[in-house]
Amino acid sequence: MLSRPSFVLLFAVLLFAAAMGPALSPTQGADPLSGSDAGHVADIASFVLSPSQWERIDTSVDLALEFLATQQRRDGSFNTLDTGQPGVTSLCVLAFLSRGHVPGEGPYGERLNRAIDYVLSKQRSDGLLFNLPIGPWYYGTATHTGIYNHAIAGLMLAEVYGMGDAERQERIRAGVSQAVAFTLGHQSRFNRNRQEQGGWRYLKLSDHRSDADLSITAWQLLFLRSAKNAEFEVPQKAINEAMGYVERCFDPRRGTFVYCIVSGRLATPAMAGAGIVSLSMGGRHESASARRAAEWMQRLPFDRYRAVERYHYSAYYCSQAAFQLGGDDWARFYPPLMNALVENQESDGSWQREARESVYGNAYSTALAVLALTPPYQILPIYQR
């Protein structure tokens, strides 16, 4: 991986490469968290995408970002429920970053600065990037969504660290440091089930018997990976324990990853992708469980828009997973998904939310769709292979 200041200097080069053809490879080097070699990615997109496909992706993503810009409020946030903040705003920022837009520069620079400031304003004194009252656990309440908001917001802040003015960077540095401490302190918080140690769960115990779930754990790993890449201190012991939990979420009988080990053993498209991506964060994308989950994932009908449960969320995770695996997995998965998304984009640039995602609005579904389309650009450091 490149050092964080180098990312800003390379954005223009990467954007030029994306416009002219296949994505460039990152500079050779060992990833600081996984130890994996990032230098062999050059051909991941080249044998899949034609010039006309690149043009379709560029046009679709640019139109989507124009729509997202209309969804930003005066306080810098992007339109969604309060219980979805600052996570949805952070997903929108990541969508802009994935196309090469940076804070403080270009047509969206000031919008991104305002969004970053909004996210930072939501951090509590204990480091949690979420500031609604935490009451009893109920689905959809702050106690349910808070830990998701925290990890997604932390991921975004770690990705923008090193970009922009010095004063804002100092606030980001302090915010990420406190957020990492909160995440590490929340790992294995509920000590009831040995096989679920190493993972993460809600801010408070729910009626469910599980102490961890793969959905929350995957976001925490993405955040910690990004923070580690940005040279924040992340203990290897915490990563090892988290990777052990992820591997135990693999169900050999089903051939994919499940949501929880003790209860709620759901095998969903999003969890297949989340499991593969999580293993990739630790350099284990070539493992047998990741390969089997990829086979399970390839049988899902992503070529039929919204035929998959939580389509946009699942598309985000599975697209990232296929890209991490590369080769035939990427060649088989991405073109049908790309066609389905581009052909079903609304004239205003958005993707319409589906029933299970409707509560969080079209900014949420559109940001996820952009992040599902942009892995070939290889601009966001966290998603580089």
Keywords:
385 residues, mainly alpha, Glycosyltransferase, two-stranded antiparallel sheet, 2 strands, 52% helix, 1% strand, globular
Summarize this entry quickly.
The chain has 385 residues and is mainly α. The chain has helices spanning 4-20, 51-70, 87-98, 109-121, 142-160, 166-186, 214-229, 236-248, 269-281, 288-298, 311-325, 327-343, 361-373, and strands spanning 250-251, 256-257.
Question: What features would you describe in this structure?
Answer:
With 385 residues, this protein is an all-alpha fold. The chain contains 13 helices and two strands. Helix content is 52%, strand content 1%. Strand 1 and strand 2 (256-257) form a beta hairpin. Helix 7 (214-229) packs antiparallel against helix 8, helix 9 (269-281) runs antiparallel to helix 10 and helix 11 (311-325) runs parallel beside helix 13 (361-373). The longest helix is centred in the middle third of the chain and has 21 residues, at 166-186. Mean pLDDT is 87; it is low at 1-43.
Side by side, the strands of the main sheet go: 1-2
In percent terms, what proportion of residues is strand?
A: under 5%
Instruction: Work out the helicity level.
Output: 40-55%
Largest sheet: 2 strands, antiparallel
Taken in chain order, the helices and strands follow as HHHHHHHHEEHHHHH
Tell me, what is the CATH class?
Answer: Mainly Alpha
The CATH level-2 architecture is identified as Alpha/alpha barrel
Sequence stretches where pLDDT stays below 50 over 5 or more residues: 1-43
Q: What would the CATH topology be?
A: Glycosyltransferase
In total, the number of strands is 2
The number of helical segments is 13
Return the average pLDDT rounded to an integer: 87
> How many structural domains can be distinguished in the coordinates?
1
Q: Could you give the distance between the termini?
A: 9 Å
